[in-house]
Design a protein that fits this description.
It is a single chain. The chain has 268 residues and is α+β, with helices and mostly antiparallel strands. The chain has two domains: 54-198, no CATH class; 201-263. The protein contains twelve helices and five strands. α9 (164-171) links the parallel β3 and β4 (175-176). The two termini are 30 Å apart.
Length: 268
């Protein structure tokens, strides 16, 4: 977990933030590779509040590693060019988590990657957006083994004037705050930049693995939702619908039931 590495390096009380979210003290060691959005948002909020750092999202982006992106992180390493790597983001970003959705817009001489944040907490959203764009920038520089910069970065929130130099130092390009979207724009020619470790054979293997993981993840989410619907249908037959009874059928509290459904992309 990228944020956990950052927090421990900075001496923050990451154990407390993990506990607030109901996560183990060492998520990676516990084999927890995919954390639902609701749980992850609680963890981030606790970390943000305890740190009091207005640059937490931006600064934690510098701690990105291949494993930060799960299988996708290793898959893009096998690509021949940056363009190949960028094309894999949207189809496989669910492997990283359900924190947001990426769209790629072709604008002639430039390409814009727009990221929509799924999180709703106003205290978390700016940090999440800053982290995502900073992580993309840092990881792309590492993959291509060159210190290239975007042509423009846009954020929908206000950046304090005192903090602006920190953002400019990370991205190395003009910034636009109070924009209508969260986006990073790069020159088209950068898509042709060769990457450091292309491996066509390994790419084929990892593509298959990533596709299977996406399918399994989707099945798991649909499965739980369908189970809940089945219990609700049973209650309808009995003329009564009660959330506590539905939750009890799964051995869960009502609150946990609601969270599980949110993590599966639906609601009660």
């Amino acid at each position: 977990m990228q944020y956990v590495r950052f927090a421990r390096e900075e001496g923050l009380n990451v154990s407390q933030a993990l506990a607030v979210a109901g996560l183990p003290d060492d998520p990676a060691h516990a084999g927890l590779n995919h954390v639902g959005g609701t749980v992850f948002q609680r963890f981030l909020k606790a970390l943000i509040e305890s740190s009091g750092d207005p640059l937490l999202g931006l600064r934690s982006g510098q701690y990105v590693q291949p494993g930060s992106y799960s299988t996708l992180g290793y898959l893009v390493m096998t690509c021949s060019t940056l363009g190949e790597a960028v094309a894999l983001i949207a189809p496989f970003e669910k492997l990283v988590g359900d924190m947001g959705v990426t769209r790629i817009l072709d604008d002639g001489d430039t390409i814009e990657l727009r990221w929509h944040c799924n999180y709703t907490d106003p205290a978390v959203r700016p940090h999440m957006m800053a982290n995502v764009l900073a992580s993309w920038t840092e990881y792309a520089r590492w993959l291509a083994a060159q210190p290239a910069s975007p042509t423009r970065v846009r954020f929908p929130f206000t950046i304090d004037a005192a903090l602006l130099p920190h953002y400019e130092r990370v991205f190395g390009c003009p910034l636009e705050d109070k924009s209508d979207c969260c986006a990073i724009r790069i020159a088209r020619h950068l898509l042709e930049a060769p990457l450091r470790q292309p491996d066509a054979r390994l790419k084929t293997t990892l593509l298959q693995a990533a596709s299977e993981q996406i399918e399994a993840l989707s099945s798991e989410q649909v499965s739980f939702s369908e189970q809940v619907r089945a219990v609700i249908r049973q209650q309808l037959d009995q003329g009564v619908i009660r959330r506590d009874v539905v939750a009890e059928a799964f051995g869960l509290s009502v609150r946990t039931l609601v969270r599980r459904l949110q993590d599966a992309g639906t609601s009660y």
